[in-house]
């Protein structure tokens, strides 16, 4: 395959830079505690300084993998497939989700929403970042809003994002892992004062699993 042919397949979403894939327990948000197969796609230019998977940022480091192979492997393990990153919406997600849906599985995505929404999703977890804001479309379609709290200003940012999502979207505040001891008491007080929000924890880290 020539470089041009490979790039054409990448542009069509038929090849994706696969960083890793693993079967585990969903640790965050609405589906926490659910067994799920995670597909982590490389590539992200949002650039959060506290990101705990910075190795995902450079798509070139991760091998372009046929979507058929990703699907074939994923459906062996679970009927809930979570696509995450990096930022998966940097790539065309339509071929991947079409093939997953054809297998009868649930498709979930975790995204900053900074790129055009593609793919057929049963659940969209929107985790917006200040560096690159979400699109109007993903605000309208998100099932849950997960705002990461690193400092006090993030409460303001969270409210700005919550004002833009649809009325059925579930709202979560989640402490950034390295700041959890400092920020958790503030999050608890904030949620008690503003009960439209819920607390989300990275329970998989407490369980010491991926």
Automatic annotation (TrEMBL):
Keywords: 4Fe-4S, Iron, Iron-sulfur, Lyase, Magnesium, Metal-binding, Queuosine biosynthesis, S-adenosyl-L-methionine. Pathway: Purine metabolism; 7-cyano-7-deazaguanine biosynthesis. Its EC number is 4.3.99.3. One of its GO terms (molecular function) is magnesium ion binding. The keyword S-adenosyl-L-methionine applies. One of its GO terms (biological process) is tRNA queuosine(34) biosynthetic process. Substrate binds at residues 25-27, 40, 84, 210. Homodimer. This is 7-carboxy-7-deazaguanine synthase. It comes from Winogradskyella jejuensis.
């Amino acid at each position: 395959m020539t470089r041009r042919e490979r790039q054409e397949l990448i542009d069509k979403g038929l090849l994706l830079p696969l960083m890793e894939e693993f079967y585990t327990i969903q640790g965050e948000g609405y589906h926490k505690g659910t067994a799920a197969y995670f597909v982590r796609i490389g590539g992200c230019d949002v650039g959060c300084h506290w990101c705990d998977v910075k190795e995902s940022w450079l798509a070139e480091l991760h091998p372009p993998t046929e979507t058929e192979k990703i699907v074939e492997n994923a459906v062996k393990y679970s009927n809930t497939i979570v696509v995450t990153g990096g930022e998966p919406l940097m790539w065309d997600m339509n071929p991947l989700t079409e093939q997953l849906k054809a297998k009868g599985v649930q498709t979930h995505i975790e995204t900053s929403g900074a790129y055009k929404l593609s793919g057929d999703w049963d659940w969209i977890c929107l985790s917006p970042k200040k560096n690159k804001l979400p699109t109007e479309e993903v605000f309208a379609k998100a099932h849950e809003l997960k705002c990461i709290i690193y400092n006090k200003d993030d409460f303001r940012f969270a409210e700005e994002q919550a004002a833009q999502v649809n009325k059925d979207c579930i709202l979560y505040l989640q402490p950034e892992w390295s700041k959890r001891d400092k920020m958790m008491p503030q999050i608890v007080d904030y949620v008690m004062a503003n009960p439209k929000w819920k607390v989300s924890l990275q329970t998989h880290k407490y369980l010491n699993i991926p």
